[in-house]
Design goal:
Layout (H helix, E strand, L loop, with lengths): L3 H12 L2 E2 H19 L8 E4 L2 E3 L1 H7 L4 E2 L14 H14 L4 H9 L2 H6 L12 E2 L1 H18 L4 H8 L1
Antiparallel strand pairs: 1-4, 2-3, 2-5
């Protein structure tokens, strides 16, 4: 199975250097949407609900103190670490979210149920974390997908084709 580092490096290879906060949110969205589209997560590392949105702690530890990241900041991906289907899913996420700012992505995630549920006992901005579970992501983004499909009669394959 791929790791969060494989996904982060792939994103950086596709989009170039970016703020660490933006990378964290793109990794989160890749995990969430891949779980819906492919019925399985991209990687096993957990995602936590930090004050500024979802964060993969293992990635954070690797880039702590650096505001901007590039592919060189992460280990080389092993050949075949990401399948073609996984790359297509990540590319679709990048087509939708890749041009958004780190701040926009952070605000977007703060308004979504998985982050809110994981931080239910904390006030906004308060320190502390809770895990955003794969189930919470799958439930929320599958419902979001159903809403999109109800509003847009095009099948998901058309959406992915437009985004890839």
């Amino acid at each position: 199975m791929a790791t969060a580092f494989d996904v982060a490096r792939y994103i950086l290879e596709q989009r170039g250097s970016m703020p660490a906060m933006k990378l964290q949110k793109l990794v989160y969205y890749a995990q969430a949407w891949s779980t819906v589209w492919d019925q399985q997560p991209l990687f096993t590392e957990s995602i936590e609900a930090w004050a500024n949105g979802p964060v993969c702690r293992e990635l954070y530890v690797a880039h702590k103190g650096r505001l901007s990241l590039s592919a060189a900041d992460f280990p080389e991906r092993a050949p075949g670490a990401l399948s073609e289907a996984q790359c297509v899913a990540i590319d679709a996420v990048l087509a939708v979210y890749g041009d958004k700012s780190a701040q926009w992505l952070s605000e977007q995630t703060l308004g979504e149920t998985p982050w809110q549920s994981a931080r239910a006992r904390l006030t906004r901005g308060e320190g502390g974390t809770g895990e955003i579970t794969i189930k919470a992501m799958a439930d929320f983004y599958a419902a979001t997908l159903r809403q999109i499909e109800a509003a847009e009669p095009a099948p998901l394959s058309d959406f992915v084709g437009l985004c890839a």
